[in-house]
Specification:
323 residues; 0% helix; single chain; mainly beta; 50% strand; five-stranded mixed beta sheet
Length: 323
């Protein structure tokens, strides 16, 4: 406060703070009032107003100091403006990740939470949109969702629900994201929430049938085994196979060994394995060997062994001659 002009008299003036965009009610500053008394030779006095600090993002705010009731002086400028400059960062939006089992039918709600970190005096908003990952809308894994979340100054969280479609198909866990963009009145510190669709369906299983044939008197007879994959899947699968001696043996030249791996595409349900059996004219009991399954990939085995019967029931027994 400055007094200009020469005088031999003391002077005084009253002062009072007055709200502007900054208010005492909002705890922006502390009210102050009183009188300043100037001796004849005094030219300046000071008035201190206490401003309350906070961590709230807001516009710069103002209040005023008003002078009135001058004695032995006039007032040429009655109002001084106090500007409270905002020094706080904008709030930031973050989104969480969600993991659930997909379910076998209907839909499962994946509820993402968007949080506004930091205080503000302003309303804010942020856009959101689902985005394909290994889970896709085209494959009917989940339902697309997009829009805008509007936050009042007091709102701290909002939620986004994405519907995931259940199925009974065996598959790997799949991912999609909810992406945040175009924040107004805030920044985005975590733009992507990951939705993990956890497979809760059983792997398909392999089984093998049994085969019975007459062995034949010469050459070879093809014994054709069918390996069946049961259960829906999106994944390729495989299983190893190996012939194993029983009462029929390789050493006795009953059949020919066979082994390898059967590779199934996702939509394939059966494969065949052929084992060659050697014909002979020897009278003998029916003989057995097995085709054994092992080492499944992306599947289980419900029946590991297919039995083979080498039938000789049509062959005549040898006869005895008396001499």
């Amino acid at each position: 406060m400055t007094k200009t002009g020469s005088t031999e008299l003391s002077a005084s003036v009253d002062f009072q703070t007055a709200d502007g965009t900054a208010t005492v009610a909002d705890n922006d500053y502390q009210a102050s009032n009183g009188s300043l008394n100037f001796a004849a030779n005094e030219t300046t006095k000071q008035i201190t107003v206490l401003v309350n600090g906070d961590a709230k993002f807001e516009a710069d705010e103002t209040f005023s100091m008003h002078l009135a009731g001058a004695t032995n002086a006039t007032i040429s400028v009655a109002n001084g403006t106090g500007t409270i400059v905002n020094d706080d960062a904008q709030p930031a939006f973050v989104i969480d990740d969600v993991t659930h089992n997909e379910g076998n039918s209907g839909t499962t709600s994946y509820v993402f939470t968007v949080s506004k970190i930091g205080t503000t005096s302003f309303s804010t908003s942020v856009d959101f949109q689902t985005q394909d990952g290994t889970a896709t809308v085209a494959d009917n894994d989940y339902q697309s969702n997009g829009g805008t979340l509007d936050f009042s100054a007091a709102d701290a969280t909002k939620q986004i629900t994405v519907l995931v479609n259940g199925d009974t198909k065996f598959e790997t866990d799949e991912l999609f994201t909810v992406h945040l963009s175009n924040a107004v009145g805030a920044t985005i510190s975590d733009a992507d929430g990951t939705g993990t669709i956890v497979n809760d369906d059983a792997a398909p299983n392999f089984s093998i049938d049994d085969v019975t044939h007459n062995e034949g008197d010469s050459g070879t007879t093809s014994y054709v085994f069918t390996v069946t994959k049961t259960g829906s899947t999106e994944l390729s699968a495989s299983v190893d196979f190996q012939t194993v001696d029983g009462t029929a043996t390789l050493a006795d030249n009953d059949y020919q060994a066979n082994s390898g791996t059967l590779n199934f595409a996702a939509n394939e349900t059966t494969k065949q394995v052929t084992v060659l059996v050697n014909g002979d004219t020897t009278y003998e009991a029916d003989e057995l060997f097995t085709l054994h399954l092992s080492n499944p990939t992306n599947a289980t085995i419900s029946m590991r062994t297919g039995w083979v019967r080498l039938s000789t029931t049509m062959r005549r027994r040898p006869s005895l001659l008396m001499m």
